[in-house]
Protein 1
Amino acid sequence: MDPIKVIRSRTVVMSSTNIDTDQIIQARFLTTTTREGLGAALFADLRNAPDGSPRPEFVLNRPESRGCRILVAGRNIGCGSSREHAPWALLDYGFQAVISTEIADIFRSNSLKNGLLPIVVDEATHQWLLDNPGAPVEIDLPASVLRLPDGRETAFPVEPFARYCLMNGVDELGYLLGQTSAIAAYESQHT
């Protein structure tokens, strides 16, 4: 995982509510246990016509969406079944953060464990983001603050251990492996 400290990016807005994990990545793409290449399957049924050609009206297919690392979604993103492939697909596509007023618990947990920052904001901030697609924003993870272009700041909650892991680019196992010498020292004193 890449460490996250500050993310500066324009936003991509998908204002739909109840974006479930099967929309994010369909079950037919869950045959892999690696993350690489899943970005191509992100929102496949929404991005592509039945013949596989890109739908030009879909937000991710528009030129102004290229290079954006922050997805602003309507209320309740990540609902549905638990699948780590959903944050994997978002990350492989290039997103580093997802913002909404409501993020499903399992999706939020899977995102944090895999290096995708899920941010819950208040209704007013969310509405401003929905009304201003492509806005350049800044996410300051150490301060847990989202900064809008007009200077307004909105605090967002992140559990301290998850923040530590994201800022240091480690998952839970990576954190534990980083404690190997301390674990060995403890065990040598308590055998």
Protein 2
Amino acid sequence: MSQNQSLDMLVVAPHPDDAELGMGGAIAKMIDLGWRVGILDLTDGEPTPFGDPETRAAETSAASDILGVTWRENLGLKNRFLEPTLESRAKLANVFRRVKPKWLFAPYWEDAHPDHLAATELVEAARFWAKLTKSDLQGEPFHPQRVFHYYCVHLKLVAQPAFVLDISDQWERKAQSIASFASQFTIGREHVSPSIHERIRDEAAYWGRLIGTRYGEPFTSREPIALKDLTRLI
């Protein structure tokens, strides 16, 4: 992405692999349609039982290539200690002002994982801060139009999404991007049944069935979703 371009969508993820798990299909679909899509990982996701920073970085790069993502950065916050501090809010707001995303995507606001809760609070607060004038933030004030929420939760809840996106044509790329994170989903889990791939596939098939397609991804929003007309509904 050149300095003169802005992002159409920025997916903010607490850890590498959350974007792929929650909305890898949507990322691939919108890139297929010509949108400029970026991913911002807030932490490196480490330590984990079978991972390390170098391995996780390589897995993240491989997943990005599969989805077609050309803009991906890491904010450098600390895994397991993610908090919506003023310092972190400023760092995130600076990114928003630099890449000027039209739409933001953040984790669903209810979760058992404290990092996910902190990530969503950070996104919403930084979105507000990014528009402030007379501040110490970098760049010019900017306010992303929308915040949507994807589901990548550590809580056994029944999602009630605002909309479900058809990702039938992008499912295989989503699955491959998730498989890139072998340190998280393959190593040490060889005898787990159902496998992470089977669970993610079955969830995508469930959402697809509800909208009459093969596979789907659910999303929601705290704010009303505006439509100019109904011609694009399926």
